[in-house]
Amino acid sequence: EAGVAQSPRYKIIEKRQSVAFWCNPISGHATLYWYQQILGQGPKLLIQFQNNGVVDDSQLPKDRFSAERLKGVDSTLKIQPAKLEDSAVYLCASSTRGALGYTFGSGTRLTVV
Amino acid sequence: GQQLNQSPQSMFIQEGEDVSMNCTSSSIFNTWLWYKQDPGEGPVLLIALYKAGELTSNGRLTAQFGITRKDSFLNISASIPSDVGIYFCAGLNYGGSQGNLIFGKGTKLSVKP
User: Using the beta-carbon criterion (under 8 Å), do B31 and A99 form an inter-chain contact?
Assistant: First the structure.
């Protein structure tokens, strides 16, 4: 089966600009996650979707981050405006049976200068 | 929030040596998982542990779920160059945020041929 697709792979923006990331999960996976991985740390959950509904967004900085999964398939994560501390790899993952069926994408590496 | 303490932070070993790394938590988890992340890629699941005291193997990898549910270790026997990467432990609790993995900071493994 095809894996979790993410784009772009790399993005460099200036602080205060906006940026969007796209994720296409594995076909049939109802649950989709966005994680932020800062250099030298483990991934941290930003938001979890079940189909097109939000299950957990408690760690999403909602003043600047937003995410949607309108048709319950692919998803976009947006940052507006970006800060220097947003520099990280943004990982998308999908699963069909909770964490045990997790598959991560290769991530988008964001650099904010 | 919940935090996982993973050690060691990095390891430099000779090919053929055995490796051991561990993870501790201040709170209980129902499931422990171990992932490996290669540069530029997302984490890939190595082993999942579901019951306290459980010992599970996957090839040269062996992991155990601590009796207290607050710790886990991963052993790699007879290391080879392709074992190089960052290993993450992750804890999972079922409930309202099912599938929300809490990751450790990772153990960076370097193998000298």
Answer: yes
Nearest CA in chain A to B40: A106
Contact A35, A90 (CB under 8 A): yes
pLDDT 10s digits, A25-61: 999 898 999 999 999 999 999 999 998 899 889 999 9
The SS3 call for residue B2 is: coil
**Distance (Å, whole) CA B3 – CA A104:** 21
Please tell me the distance from the alpha carbon of residue B28 to that of residue B31, in angstroms, as a whole number. Answer: 9
B80 touches chain A (CB under 8 A): no
The dihedral built from the CA positions of residue A102, A62, A10 and A25, taken in this order, carries a sign that is positive
* Cα(A5)–Cα(A45) distance, integer angstroms: 18
Model pLDDT for residues B40-99, shown as the tens digit of each residue: 999 999 999 999 999 999 999 999 999 999 999 999 999 999 999 999 999 987 654 456
For chain B, say whether A30 makes contact (Cβ under 8 Å): no
Buried b (16+ CB within 10 A) or exposed e, A88-98: bbbbbbbbeee
R_g of chain B computed on alpha carbons = 14
Q: Which residues of B touch A44 (CB under 8 A)?
A: 103
Q: Kindly report, residue by residue over B81-91, the tens digit of the pLDDT.
A: 999 999 999 99
Question: By the CB < 8 Å criterion, does B95 face chain A?
Answer: no
Cβ pairs A/B, distance under 8 A: 65
